[in-house]
Design goal:
This protein is mainly β. The chain contains no helices and 10 strands. Strands 1, 2, 3, 4, 5, 6, 7, 8, 9 and 10 form a 10-stranded antiparallel beta sheet that branches. A hairpin with a 4-residue loop joins strand 2 and strand 3.
């Protein structure tokens, strides 16, 4: 929450306490959480399988700094505009959108091959205890 801007989940961001979020409508550069999360000063931690983050972006590349709070791998699936990324998958996501968080680092998740335009990115975590820190774009 220290640098959370343009957060649009209904009810806003709750600091340092668990909350079940719902995704709100996204305009360009808006983001939202869905599912059970606890948002701390430096990161948000998922509390249950199915927790997700969505972001409306316009850039060729989308990266997310992620880690595992428990140290165990956390499986995820990404979509771009509601579909598997296919050829637009970044180096840490497969064409079907699947991937695994194995340690704390920057994860390149989307690398668009075609024209850059507004897109909606969603990452859903299939396991709990992921830590999400920040997005970066290229």
């Amino acid at each position: 929450y220290y640098r959370a801007e343009r957060f649009v989940s209904p009810g806003g961001l709750v600091h340092d306490n668990p909350k079940v979020y719902e995704r709100g409508p996204l305009a360009l550069n808006d983001w939202a959480l869905a599912g059970a999360w606890i948002d701390n000063r430096q990161s948000a931690r998922s509390l249950a399988p199915g927790a997700a983050i969505s972001f409306r972006f316009q850039a060729r590349d989308l990266h997310l700094v992620l880690g595992s709070a428990s140290g165990t791998p956390v499986r995820f699936r990404i979509t771009v505009d509601g579909k598997a990324p296919g050829a637009d998958a970044g180096t840490d996501a497969k064409a079907d959108g699947s991937g695994v968080v194995t340690g704390q680092r920057l994860y390149p998740l989307v690398r668009q091959k075609g024209a850059v335009r507004d897109r909606t990115f969603t990452i859903t975590f299939l396991d709990p205890d992921v830590e999400a820190f920040s997005f970066t774009f290229g």
